[in-house]
Write a structure and sequence with these properties.
427 residues; six-stranded parallel β-sheet; five-stranded parallel β-sheet; 16% strand
Length: 427
């Protein structure tokens, strides 16, 4: 069911690489579908959006009905509301610590240079809904945008069984989202990027989605900003003989139940522990409601890695660059400072990654497909843009100008040189 990789020969790196690349291979079908839908929405607007909503989501209502929203929220169990409130407070508190700092510099020529942060004007938040309900995703996306003081926050949320999730709608109300579109898929991404008669376009799109949403975000990037091209969920767990077998197995299954393309990896120097985890997974699968998804995920992308040294463990982690990393070992400090590539790291036996998906306070929108090598999880900083301001003095242009002229001529840009010459009276 789940592959075991032994790192006792030199070719283990290439074997692991092939397993990772296989999962990351470009899906041409989803790309082609997304391109077709985007082109249709650009040309035919709301008509095209409704067409694809009827086809894929059995939905003909683009704009969420306010009366239905209120009724749906009233139907939500108070226990769920309290859980959302609790998560909101923790996420808000942690993200409020993320402060931007403007920069001011004045040199000895009285030139003034500024670097100022400005919030993005409008953001579209995509919240998946076709297969499950994710109020936590509303909070993770909207709270940082709210703290950054984004003026207009829009939610895109497809219906589940003909209705929008009461939990998602309550979370949206909690963060102050008033503009809600009950659409999903590539058509939602296209509509919010280019705008229609009913849907006003935004400056940036954030949030996870299925393969068609990801493909669409990739295609529209440049016409609109995006947070990242997020793939299916991932976890890598490092465990030792002191780890709890059932806890580790449960942590792997928690990610496997997301999607058949989720990636679950266990690394340990103890082969007996690895075999025990494998048996525990088989046992726990029997009672998991989403067992068919989890089982398929483990068959396709599950890897149990037998390592032989801490150096191997560190190298493997940095190679995988997992979205989620659990260091479920007795002395994680031995390797922690040498791990450079991971979206989020949970330390110690009690730090279950599932908590970070809900109310630890950190963000669960994280880089996948090894993109943690060059990117980070969603934060307040993603909802700002930076602007440079330059105020040169007369003495400043006279001092800097001659060197600019020299470099401009070297690069063959005579127009640049003349721009300076005029100011220096050399035209």
């Amino acid at each position: 069911m789940i592959k075991i990789l032994y790192c006792n020969n030199k070719n283990y790196v290439s074997k692991l690489s092939k397993l990772l690349i296989k999962r990351k291979s470009d899906d041409k079908i989803s790309k082609n579908v997304a391109v077709k839908i985007i082109s249709d929405v650009k040309k035919n607007g709301d008509k095209a959006v409704v067409k694809y909503e009827k086809r894929y989501n059995k939905n003909s209502e683009i704009i969420a009905n306010k009366k239905k929203i209120s009724k749906s929220i009233r139907s939500l169990d108070s226990k769920i509301k309290r859980a959302i409130d609790f998560a909101y407070n923790r996420i808000y508190k942690f993200h409020s610590k993320q402060k931007v700092q403007n920069i001011f510099h004045k040199d000895n020529l009285h030139n003034k240079l500024y670097y100022k942060y400005r919030p993005i004007d409008s953001v579209g938040i995509y919240v998946p809904g076709g297969n499950a309900s994710f109020p936590s995703t509303v909070l993770m996306n909207a709270i940082p945008a709210k703290i950054a003081r984004v003026k207009r926050i829009v939610m895109l949320n497809p219906k589940l069984n003909g209705e929008q999730s009461p939990g998602v709608l309550y979370a949206a109300k909690k963060v102050g989202i008033k503009e809600i579109y009950s659409i999903g898929g590539a058509q939602a991404i296209a509509a919010i990027t280019y705008g229609t008669k009913k849907i006003k376009k935004v400056n940036k799109i954030v949030g996870p989605g299925n393969i068609f949403v990801s493909a669409a975000k990739k295609e529209v990037f440049g016409d609109v900003g995006i947070d990242m091209v997020a793939g299916p969920s991932e976890i890598t767990v490092v465990a030792d003989k002191f780890s709890n077998v059932n806890w580790v197995a449960a942590d792997l299954l928690a990610q496997a139940e997301h999607d058949i393309n989720s990636q679950c990896i266990l690394i340990s120097k103890d082969i007996n522990f690895i075999n025990k985890v494998k048996n525990s997974i088989i046992h726990q699968l029997k009672d998991l409601p989403r067992k068919f998804i989890a089982k398929k995920s483990l068959e396709l992308n599950g890897i149990l890695i037998k390592a032989y040294s801490n150096k191997q463990i560190i190298d493997i982690i940095n190679m995988i660059a997992p979205e989620h990393l659990e260091l479920n070992i007795k002395n994680y400090n031995i390797i922690l400072n040498k791990i450079n590539n991971a979206g989020s790291i949970c330390l110690g036996n009690y730090s279950a990654m599932a908590v970070t998906d809900y109310n630890a306070g950190t963000n669960h929108i994280l880089p996948t497909n090894s993109s943690a090598k060059f990117s980070s999880g969603l934060s307040v900083y993603d909802f700002y843009k930076r602007i440079s301001y330059i105020n040169l003095s007369k003495k400043g242009i006279e001092t800097l100008g001659p060197s600019v002229i020299t470099l401009a001529k070297f690069e063959g840009l005579e127009g640049h040189a003349k721009s300076i010459k005029f100011r220096l009276g050399r035209s």
